[in-house]
């Protein structure tokens, strides 16, 4: 059977439809949570079966106000005997599955933060670590007047720090560098 046999048009969900409507006139995109959940179930059933993982998942959809607070609109939580596999090497497999799921859903990049995968509270713990690091680094910058540069990190993690320090007194944040070497730097307010 050819590799493309049985695929739906456009590689997306039912009849090739994306789990969000087209852009509104203002350029906004919104996630169709029901369709996204349906497609995630199809993807995860296939991925878990083909990878022969001893793992189960639960899809959660927080309240409609989640988007306004920056929380994911759809969260997939994994648990089971192979959960350590998902978390090895800084959760590389977990993040890879999430990336492939975004591709499966054909999500607009602006919606990537709306669908998140977690396992053993890894993402929640990492989020709190980043926020704490941001606050501690900002305090250090205020006290010393010297910039603080984080190690290279993903755009998602840099965004968390930017949001945590948005409006913080006496500091400003800037992403510098390119590609995998892109870093977040906290500067004293007023210094370039």
What's the helix and strand layout?
Elements: H1 33-51, E1 56-60, H2 66-69, E2 74-79, H3 83-105, E3 115-119, H4 122-144, E4 148-149, H5 155-165, E5 171-176, E6 183-188
Helix pairs in contact: 1-3, 4-5
Describe, in plain words, how this protein is organized in 3D.
The chain is an alpha+beta fold. The chain has 2 domains: 112 residues, no CATH class; 63 residues, R3H-like domain (Ribosomal Protein S8, Chain: A, domain 1, 2-Layer Sandwich). Helix content is 42%, strand content 16%. The chain contains 5 helices and 6 strands. It has a 3-stranded mixed beta sheet with strand order 1-2-3. Strands 4-6-5 form a 3-stranded antiparallel beta sheet. The termini are far apart. The N terminus is likely disordered.
Top keywords for this entry?
single chain, Ribosomal Protein S8, Chain: A, domain 1, 6 strands, three-stranded antiparallel sheet, alpha+beta, 192 residues
């Amino acid at each position: 059977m050819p590799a493309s046999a049985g695929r739906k048009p456009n590689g997306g969900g039912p009849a090739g439809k994306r789990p969000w409507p087209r852009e509104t006139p203002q350029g906004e995109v919104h996630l169709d949570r029901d369709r996204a959940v349906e497609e995630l179930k199809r993807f995860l059933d296939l991925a878990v079966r083909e990878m022969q993982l001893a793992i189960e998942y639960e899809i959660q959809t927080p309240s409609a106000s989640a988007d306004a607070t920056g929380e994911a609109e759809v969260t997939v939580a994994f648990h089971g005997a192979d959960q350590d596999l998902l978390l090895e090497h800084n959760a590389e497999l977990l993040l890879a599955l999430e990336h492939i799921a975004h591709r499966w859903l054909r999500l607009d990049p602006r919606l990537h933060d709306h669908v998140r995968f977690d396992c053993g509270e890894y993402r929640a713990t990492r989020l709190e670590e980043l926020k704490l690091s941001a606050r501690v680094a900002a305090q250090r910058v205020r006290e010393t007047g010297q910039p603080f540069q984080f190690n290279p990190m993903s755009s998602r993690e840099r965004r968390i720090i930017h949001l945590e320090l948005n409006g913080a007194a006496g500091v400003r944040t800037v992403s510098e560098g390119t590609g995998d070497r892109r870093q977040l730097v906290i500067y004293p307010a007023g210094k370039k």
